[in-house]
Structures are given as C-alpha cells and as structure tokens.
Amino acid sequence: MLSYKICHLTSAHRYDDHRIYFKECFSLAQANYETHLVAQNAPNEIRRGIHLHSVPHISNNRLLRMTKTVWNVYQNAVEVDAELYHFHDPELIPIGLLLKMRGKKVIYDVHEDLPRTIVNKNHIPQNLRNIISVASKLLEDFASKYFDAIVTATPMIASRFTRLGCLAIDIKNYPNLTDLEFPDLNWGQKEQAVCYLGSIGEQRGIFETIAAIEQTDANLLLAGNFAYPDDRDKAMTMPGWDKVRYLGYLNRQEVAQVLAKSMAGLVVLHPLINYLDALPVKMFEYMFAGIPIVASDFPLWKQIIEEHQCGICVNPLDPNAIAAAIQWIIDNPELARQMGENGRRAIEEKYNWNYENTKLLELYSKLLH
C-alpha cells in the first residue's frame, strides 16, 4: 500500500497536545501514513511513529508568534513536502492558502468557534473585540472555501462551515481508551480531594472553585497553567488557596495519577457563548477515570450527565452550589463510586475515540485516494 506523507502544523499548541498528538497524529501513524508534526519546541525525533519537527519558541508575545513563528512553521512544512497538510490554528490560515497554491491538499482543524471566542478574550481591548470577531469570521469564511476539508471539535461548529458549502465533519475530543493507564486504586484509597485539569482562569471558574473548596472538607488538586498571571496572583491571595495543591502542567502519566486519587473532577466553566456547546475533553477524561463530575448546568452537559447519572450539575457562578456538590460527593462515597462507574461505562460504550478515529481515517482516504 502506498504510504502517503501527512504533515500536521501548529504554532500555538504544544507538540504533545491531546487532540493533535495523542489522537489525530497517533491514529494516522497507526494507519501506516507517514505522519509528521511541526510544532514549537518539539523534539526532533520520531515518537510513537510520528516524525516531530521543532520550531523554536521565539517569544510569548502573540504578535511575534503570529508572524515569525508562523513563518518558521511554513518553512518547515515546505521542507517536509507532504501530500496533505492539516493545520490547527487560525493564525495559520495564510499558510494553508500558500500550501494550496503549491497544489497540496489542506485540512483546517477548528478547535473552537473563533468569532464567538474572541468576544471573551481578556487580552483583546473591549472596544476592539466585536470588530476583530467580525474580521475573523470574514477571513475564516473566505479561506475555508479553498481548503479541501474542515475538521471541527463539535457538530455545532461543523454546521457553520457546512452552510458555507465546505466539506466539514466533526471529530470530537473523546478519550482514547489506550491513552491513559490508571493506577489500580479502590475508592477507599482515594484522597479526600477533587481535581481540576486544564487551562486555568477566571472564565473557567477558578475563583468560584477556590471559594467553594474553602467551604468543604475536601482539598483541590489543581493541574494546568494559568492563562493570565493576574489570575494566578489573585487566586493565591484567596483564603481557600490554603486547601489547593497546585501541580502545574502535568504529563499524561501524571494526569492519570491525579485522576486516580481524586473523588471528583470539576468543570465549572462560566456560561459564555463559546462554552455552551463545547465538549470539553476534561469532562470525558473524568468519566474515563471513573470519578463523578461537578459541571456547569449547561443544557448539553446536563443532558449527558443526567442521561448517564455520572455527576452533579450546578450554577457555575455560585460557589455555594459548587461547594454543596463537592461536599455531597465527600459525604456519600458509595453513591459517588456508582456515579463514577456509570461515567466509565458511558465512555467505554459511547464517548470514546474509536468512532472519531474511523471518521478521521475515512476523510483522509477520501481526500488522498
């Protein structure tokens, strides 16, 4: 069988991003595609069958990343000379167009609804957000019609591009059943603690979470990076911070260890328009780990959690409600264990990467054959 050369590109994500590296690239490598990944600070070697190409981290300045780093990504992409390129950041749209001009197949992977997200970006001045949101939509709408396919993280985002006449499919961020290996801990060996994994910030509920944990008999295992230094500084001055064990960024093995010793996982994001229809990977990883979820009471999330009886939905803006849910889980370990088992069963039967992987490989086959 002819082994096509595929190259994934990112200027904004880590090379070992869950969606890009552990799911999409690994699936392609397993399917015998010659798979390449260009990313900042990637090791220049082959890992898990994926050829990694490093782009140097120039600066945390977004303008430099969107210019110098993007250009370095393009130069690496040209050197790889793949048949198909799959890029993951809106700032790489011009690079995608340049690769199309070279006669290459190009897929744009849309992780979030950019125009809806921009209106809530704290680093963008308030008076510019609507203007930039509209401009980003116009750019995406224009460029996407030239790409061979659009891959999105949710059906809602896919529908937007389908209406434009694009070939668009949703590839959801469901867990890969071979990705995490959990230590064999029974419920009695768990810590009296709940966890939060992922990007940390005001809009993701960090201040409500710390205010809530202060009211409970539990500790908080907090893993990830703060989106803004000001949020970190404010969080560390809150009285509830004494009950927080801040772990920083964790690798996949360390993530599995934290999940295994936690009694619940938190995903209490604020009710912003770009979160309401999201399918956060952390929610499904909590289910995969067999622990109950304390989640925002968004209709989509509530439907999933209530259908499978795998957690508690709360008003994410109410620390008292979050605290009550956490304390209930601490006080009712047997019922919490049953919730966790329900969630794990739902992952094994429905919300896993196997079906998403099949959709991804079918798309590649359609474009390349």
Give Rg in angstroms.
Answer: 21 Å
Strand % is: 15-25%
What is the H/E string?
EHEEEHEHEHHEHEEHEHEHEHHEHEHHH
Number of helices: 15
N-C termini distance? 12 Å
Structural class: alpha/beta
Helix content: 40-55%
Question: Biggest β-sheet, characterized?
Answer: 8 strands, mixed
Q: Could you list the spans in which at least 5 consecutive residues all have pLDDT below 50?
A: none
Main sheet strand line-up: 3-4-2-1-5-6-7-8
Global shape: globular
What's the number of extended β-strand segments? Answer: 14
Q: What is the averaged pLDDT score?
A: 94
Provide a descriptive summary of the structure in words:
α7 packs across α13 and α11 (281-288) crosses α14 (333-349). The chain has 369 residues and is an alpha/beta fold. It has helices spanning 18-30, 62-80, 93-101, 114-118, 126-144, 155-162, 206-213, 229-237, 252-261, 273-276, 281-288, 299-308, 319-331, 333-349, 353-368, and strands at 5-14, 34-40, 46-47, 50-55, 84-87, 105-110, 149-152, 168-170, 193-197, 219-223, 244-248, 265-267, 293-296, 311-314. It contains 15 helices and 14 strands. 46% of the residues lie in helices and 18% in strands. It starts with a strand and ends with a helix. The strands form 3 sheets. The protein has an 8-stranded mixed sheet with strand order 3-4-2-1-5-6-7-8, with helices on both faces. β5 (84-87), α3 (93-101) and β6 (105-110) form a beta-alpha-beta unit. The model has no long low-confidence stretch (mean pLDDT 94).
